[in-house]
Amino acid sequence: QQQVKQSPQSLIVQKGGIPIINCAYENTAFDYFPWYQQFPGKGPALLIAIRPDVSEKKEGRFTISFNKSAKQFSLHIMDSQPGDSATYFCAASRGGSTLGRLYFGRGTQLTVWP
Amino acid sequence: DTGVSQDPRHKITKRGQNVTFRCDPISEHNRLYWYRQTLGQGPEFLTYFQNEAQLEKSRLLSDRFSAERPKGSFSTLEIQRTEQGDSAMYLCASSPERAVYSGNTIYFGEGSWLTVV
Question: Considering only alpha carbons, which residue of chain A is nearest residue B105?
Answer without folding.
Answer: A46
